[in-house]
Amino acid sequence: MKYLFYYKRTGLLRYLSNHETMRMIERILRRTGGEFKMTEGFHQRMKLSFGQALPTGVIDRSGLFLLSTDEILDGEFLKVANSISPLGFEISKTEIVNDKFELGKSIDGYIFKLIFLRAPEVHDGWKIEEKGKIWVAGFFNVFNSHSPKPDEFGQYLTIRDSVIFKGGI
Question: Which helix (H) or strand (E) holds 12?
């Protein structure tokens, strides 16, 4: 079976690089004691694939990874995985997907939110809301295109808020 995992990476963990995040997730999964499918060859690794990498410093509320296993992963598995995860990392949900499902071919893009402490310049496609003393700019970003870096537009925070799939899962 193939499972699609949704995770959140917040707080100080947003400063982990993409490679460090992938290693952290692999270690969490190993600590659960589950039996996962492995690659073949001399240096075997878990069969994992990840969504688009983010620049260091971006809060991620829509991280994704695929995992292959013969086990049934239920709510108890998520409780165990989250209990051994560091503060700021949480697997929010999981769902079974078709064995032919591929992240790169299934994701249309992501919704990003930028938090500003003063009124920002408006760019094409941005929806801006004033919320008290902050401004929130939201926009759609096509999969595998340039992700906004922290402070690229003078923003205080950068958040990858949600994922948009092509025609649903």
Answer: none
